[in-house]
Amino acid sequence: MAILGVVATxxxxxxxxxxxxxxxxxxxxxxxxxxxxxxxxxxxxxTNIALQASTDEIxxxxxxxxxDAGSITRFLERQNDRLPYLGSLRASNERGDxxxxxxxRNPTVSVADRDYFIRLRDDPNAGLYVGSVVTGHTxxxxxxxxARRISKPDGSFGGVIVTTFHIAEINAMLAQxxxxxxxxxxxxxxxxxxxxxxxxxxxxxxxxxxHRLSAPAQExxxxxPREGTYVSDSRFADHxxxxxxxxxxxxxxxxxxxxxxxxxxFTEWRRQAWIVGALVxxxxxxxxxxxxxxxxxxxxxxxTLGAIRSSELSLNEAQQIARLGSYVYDLQTRQWTxxxxxxxxxxxxxxxxxxxxxxLDLVGTQSRAQVQAHVRRLxxxxxxxxxxxxxxxxxxxxxxxVHCTGRLRLDEHGNASAIVGTYQDITERKAAEETINQxxxxxxxxxxxxxxxxxxRMRQAMxxxxxxNHFGAVLLIDLDRFKVLNDTYGHEVGDLLLSEVARRLTAxxxxxxxxxxxxxxxxxxxxxxxxxxxxxxxxxxDRQAAGAHARTVSEKILAVLGQGYQLAQxxxxxxxxxxxxLFQGQQAALEDLLKQxxxxxxxxxxxxxxxxxxxxxxxxxxxxxxxxxxxxxxRGLDEGRFLVHYQAQVTAEGHVIGAEVLARWxxxxxxxxxxxxFIPIAEESGLILPLGAWVLDTACMxxxxxxxxxxxxxxxxxxxxxxxxxxxxxxVDQVVAALRKSGADPARLKxxxxxxxxxxxxxxxxxxxxxxxxxxxxxxxxxxxxxxxxLTYLKRLPLDQLKIDRSFVxxxxxxxxxxxxxxxxxxxxxxxxxxxxxxxxETPAQRQFLAECRCDVYQGYLFSHPLPPEAFERLxxxxxxxLRTAPAIQGxxxxx
Length: 896
Known about the structure:
Elements: H1 2-64, H2 69-82, E1 90-92, E2 98-101, H3 115-122, E3 129-130, E4 134-135, E5 142-151, E6 157-166, H4 167-174, E7 184-188, E8 194-199, H5 215-223, E9 227-231, E10 242-248, E11 255-261, H6 262-265, H7 267-281, H8 286-322, E12 324-330, E13 336-338, H9 340-346, H10 365-381, E14 385-392, E15 399-410, E16 416-425, H11 427-441, H12 451-468, E17 472-479, H13 482-489, H14 491-508, E18 514-517, E19 531-536, H15 543-561, E20 565-567, E21 570-572, E22 576-583, H16 590-606, E23 612-614, H17 617-639, E24 642-651, E25 656-667, E26 671-673, H18 675-685, H19 688-706, E27 716-721, H20 723-726, H21 731-742, E28 749-754, H22 762-774, E29 778-784, H23 791-794, E30 801-804, H24 806-810, H25 816-831, E31 835-839, H26 844-852, E32 857-859, H27 869-877, H28 882-889
Helix pairs in contact: 1-2, 1-7, 1-8, 1-11, 7-8, 13-14, 14-15, 17-18, 19-21
């Protein structure tokens, strides 16, 4: 019986020791897994803030229409300097080319094949993307990519902002943690792909292990995806059986695995089993064996305590990385048990008193009441708390932001005994949030509220005017000649002007008024960066008086902005145009108010600039009509509702030598729309580019058809080219392609240019003309005498013909000045060796006068209205009889 008692006692001791060993391992791995989860969540939180700030900065520049690659790169570099543990922050365009950030090379590196690029491109609602380990494009090392989507102002995909954690850096951080012999730490991504893995025997080698999970791990994670503990399969990975604890981050979905070797942990236990066997076989030595057992148990306890202390040290190191301090607050003694990290956060040491009042100094009465309410709710309702507050450190008086959590600990009777929780220093995160707020709501150049904040204040003002039954006003201010300054002296000088304008506007306003720089929107307010909005929220309850006050403020602004500017070494005098709209309550939408002010501003600019104009309903009606006509014009181009007519160009002898090509629009409801109505709209909207290209292609194809008819082969066609069309980057290639595609003779094509082409970049104009002249194309200077008329440049232009404007021809018999101008143009053309053509010839007397002046060629209703192709061909075949037969042909003509 004595032997059985010894055996039973030994067995119970071994069983208890085994259970305690397994509990100790599980507790250690669970605590370390939680600490590592918090650590990496903190790193990703900070990274997410940096990426969000970067995407906001890029989105702001995209919305402004003025993207400065250097500014974006410097912004990304500043974010990198704040977060030294990250790889370079880089941004791509929508094609995947890395174009912003430190180390971006030319030719650019493409990330279009990366998983994070594809997922963020296809998911407009994606947040922070935490990816799988990949090999870096540039340095070919293993990295863990973290990325966010960049969206354009219309919500479409604009690229990605991406940074990386180097796996070697993560391993170096993990290598600082003390592991038991046979211990292991794994970090896996959201898709279970391995990010890194270290063991006690292998802490520095960076490599990707097998991505599979063992069967016990899969079973445990199916039962509890968030956290758990299991025993691994010794045949998996490095053939070591371990107890693993895992935790999955609910925010970023990565998983941390921490394991300790069972074989190493149970070595001591197996020795105890051998001792029990020895006791059974040799009862004689029971006393000595019992003493040995006591001795070994004491040693085992010392080892256990040492392991616990080592685990606590590792846990404290991990908490220091995450700036996370833990505490236990005894509700009976009102004493605190604090971790070293918590003491470091509050700036106190171990010798500092344990009572809360001596070191927990909360800033603001609200913070104190908040903490008391949270503690009271926790004790009464057993509900955990989680809040942020500001503290004042007793050591130096500095203020810090902390994130506090707490939960209740119950004693064996179910009564509340203590509060346990954590404090985390979030001061840097708060500073980053403030930076993001500045980026989101304030213009970075001028410091003024941006459009987002302006709209919010307009909502408040509209609500206030509705309650108080008074009026407010919106002033939209556009700087005149800003584009000329910007293009002439560069964006840096333009930015100086914008900053000074913002300062002067702010000085003009009374307290409570708002001035904001327009940076986005569906109106013309986003054309460049020279538009400002002033909000006057309270102008009284009399509409007439409110309007008078708004006009007074506007005129004051005009006077202030009209004063001279000293911009670096440049003296500049500018003016502004202001559109004003009044509002009362919420009778109009916010965007409609800005549109009304914008319409009034553009009308003020059209009326001569440097003026103030109030919005009227007729402006909106005119704008709607113009928008409707522009839409019809766009559809007309898509549906092929345009055709060309030809107006004959005739020699003094009556020979038809060519024609001017004139576009006609067949509107489905309005019939033929005069060019005077749709050409200006086409110019402003940019539709003149596809329209002009179509006219050019049609003319070249017509020349090619005529070349196969002997009586028509010698005819030339003159095609009008607008300044916008001529200066387009592809214009020269477009002309050459039209000639090549149609097979037309370039010598039969003549491009009619207006003098407005000479206003901007004369050298480029001459260079383009010379390229086309070398291809065989001829040139006529249209409307000569009404525009620039610089002889300095005229003699350098490769022209073939001057065209006397119809305004001179019309009064050539009645106005001596017009007659003199016509004679001078003919004489000038002859002296320069150029042909001269007069347009708008309507009477025989006009033709006779021009013939006496020795004008070469005529064009006008006297000879022919603009004709469809078939009618013009009949006219051209009549040759010298054109003057006699022209009246009979006019019946087929269309109005000019």
